[in-house]
Prior knowledge:
alpha+beta
Amino acid sequence: MTEITRRDVLGGAALLAAGAAGVAALPHHHPHQHPHPHQHADPDPNQHPHHQHPHHGRGRGPNWDALARRLHGRLLRPGDPGYTAASVPYNRRYAAIRPGGVALCADTADVQTALAWARAYDVPFAARSGGHSYAGYCASRGLVISLAPMRSIRVDRRALTVTLGAGTRNRDLYAGLAGTGVAVPSGRCPTVGVSGLLLGGGFGFSSRHLGLTCDQLLETEVVTASGRALLVSPVEQPDLFWACQGGGGGNFGINTRFTVRATPVGRVAVYRLAWPWRDAGTAVSAMLDLVATAPGRLSCRIGLGVSGGGPATGGSPKRTVTALGLFFGRAEELEGLLAPVLTVARPSEQVVEELSYLAAQAALAHNVPFDRFASRSRFLDQPDVDTAIRWLERWPGSSNPGGAGVTLFAWGGAIARVDPAATAFAHRGQAYLMDSETTWTARDSRRVVAAGLDWLDGMYRALAPRGQAYQNFIDPSLAHWPAAYYGQNLARLIDVKRRYDPDRVFRFPQAVPG
């Protein structure tokens, strides 16, 4: 392996200096800046001095024009057409954190240029692929290095590989694979970036059969803190390659390209079931019994949800219990697997249909949660369904039609067949991933937002006070997060961080320690 040392990073100073016109020295980089994790309403820059524009009171500001001239892509500044859409993160809870500029990178050279410029002018920065960081860590008051334009997709059907630009989103991937007869396990939400998805693990409706997204990685290109673009694989930089398989985005560099393994697929079957709330306990218990013995070809997402106002904002709450998933097989076989559940708990809605793989992804696609939200996750072996039901009946409400809920994603299958130490993704042996969430909008008062967050924290403590958590559902309120996200792999990740980013250029409140 080629060893990356502090000398290598310091040796990259010439490249860094070249990336910012007229700058000869490289001052120390400021950390990323974000709101307090327990902040209840939207961030207010006037209330939080550490979010003020960088370089306030300094004699020399950053030369944005120099950056714009050097990019092959575009630099968007406040007031430019497209700036607002490019600058706001998916979680509108952090919408007030606006950058001084968004570098729309056209290629790897642009990423190197933007990183060099940010370091040279001591401008805080955040790299962004799809912008779905639940904690807003893809937002910055300085520079957003956006990979969104880098959406190339190249399918090699003979080699069964797919090469993706780092700006590719789930919807781009599914569209790019249409008609090829191959699949790559990816997520449900169409606008999620594949880069962040893969780097933090990545699961979806095909993962119990095909594995996690990170398990398909064959090669990636990474721009490290030194400004160098490294080709990373099991042979070249194997420790960094291992860290890119679930170690979390934004920790070790900026990934610009991925080559992943593809799998031939044919027609599949999907199911969508819903029950009256009064049958929630019976229905969920029946689904849990099914998943316990079901083959890995069957995936399952169980949702307990509530929406529609509630005590805090008025209106009658609507509560739902649903199950949906994908089955690699015929619809008739799927119906046989579901039969015991349907006998015990008769659904109010029932759909079982056979589709092409691409059509199945479209049928199951949905962006949730949305607008402003908080999400807390745990990996569980035995979900406490009765406690979840009781807490959902006490949700204080908000004006967001997405409401609040508890979701259980069936784990196991191909996910569990990978040793926890084989990749940086340590969560292999558990039965379920639980996600609990509450949502709101800008119309809700601070009192309503605070009530929802307090409710979420109480339910979370009641359902899962300790254990591992999913790093892609990154949670700014999570205690002991390094161990919760990375488990037994934390020590090795810290070692990789120290070797590839010794000065912690890539840092945010929950970055891998170094």
